[in-house]
Design goal:
Helices cover 44% and strands 15% of the residues. The protein is of the alpha/beta class. A hairpin with a 2-residue loop joins strand 1 and strand 2. Helix 2 runs parallel beside helix 12 and helix 4 packs across helix 5. It starts with a strand and ends with a helix. The model has no long low-confidence stretch (mean pLDDT 96).
Length: 303
């Protein structure tokens, strides 16, 4: 369903839509990463949260999936932006991660939800951090997965992962986009938990058939690159915080998780051996074993 949130049309999936009894449950808001859609949250991540007694809400970030597009703003000049970033010059993206955090609050507002447990992956973790900084009373707990504080000096992607990330499909056909998507998932995926080829292909094709927003990915990338002050603000976060990260992440190295956890008082850090920058079943099972007790503890504090 589409909601009017923060002046945009945001596509949302809410477990309470299927079961109205979920309306009274504590809410877990899932925030997806760069260029990804709400369908990238696997059922084996979502359903255990529902089974644990939570109302689970997923949404497409602006400029992705079925939410409002910013394509009229045109394609960003990424080589120029990368050069400015490397020189430490200010970037001026079409929108910021703070704007995207306000979109998430807008989803909660549209659903009449005053407070939620916020769980974000990759860029979604950065948005979740921004939410916890901006409105402490509205974030019951924070979970930052395979994300980063964005602090200067942190290690970057491995060369192969960066090279694939910066490349593009040869054209916009399903075959070309699928070929590129498979190459990207192979480059950033979990070496200890490789996903079956058929499943990876099905994921890429499902995403392609639902929505293709290549320029939205670039604009979101600019928002991430421009968010240079977040690291110094993480010390303001007071809600229970869980940081989870694969120790074999080739895109956002584990050191980024260690840095994030060190900046937030009382944060718990979970490192998962063999996990990269994706959500295979076994690492998700390990994460849920820590995440659900984390949510329960935080919920007891606000109940």
């Amino acid at each position: 369903m589409k909601l009017n949130a923060n002046g945009l049309q945001i596509e949302v999936e809410d477990s309470a839509t299927l079961d109205p009894a979920h309306l009274q449950r504590p809410v877990v808001l899932l925030v997806m990463g760069l260029g990804m859609q709400l369908i990238a949250w696997p059922a084996y991540f979502v359903q255990p949260l529902v089974d644990a007694g939570y109302r689970v809400i997923r949404f497409d970030n602006r400029d992705s999936g079925l939410s409002s597009s910013f394509d009229p703003l045109g394609k960003p000049n990424m080589p120029w932006a990368l050069m400015k970033f490397q020189l430490g010059l200010a970037l001026h993206p079409p929108y910021t991660l703070t704007d995207m955090a306000q979109d998430a609050f807008g989803v909660l507002d549209a659903l009449g939800i005053p407070r939620a447990h916020v769980v974000g992956v990759s860029m979604g973790g950065m948005i979740a951090q921004r939410m916890a900084i901006a409105a402490p009373s509205r974030v019951a707990s924070l979970t930052s997965i395979m994300s980063s504080s964005g602090a200067k000096g942190l290690p970057g992607p491995q060369p192969h992962a960066f090279k694939v990330m910066m490349s593009r499909p040869r054209n916009k056909t399903e075959d070309a986009v699928t070929e590129y998507g498979m190459a990207l998932l192979h480059a950033i995926g979990s070496p200890g938990y490789p996903m079956p080829e058929a499943e990876l292909r099905a994921q890429v094709q499902q995403a392609y058939r639902r929505s293709l927003r290549p320029h939205g990915v670039l604009r979101q990338t600019l928002a991430v690159m421009a968010d240079t002050e977040r690291a110094d603000l993480l010390s303001r976060i007071q809600c229970p915080t869980l940081v989870m990260h694969g120790r074999a992440d080739p895109l956002v190295p584990f050191a980024c998780a260690e840095d994030t956890a060190q900046r937030i008082a009382g944060a718990v850090l979970l490192g998962i051996e063999g996990m990269g920058h994706d959500l295979p079943p076994e690492p998700v099972h390990q994460m849920l074993a820590t995440l659900i007790p984390h949510l329960n503890f935080a919920q007891q504090r606000v109940a």
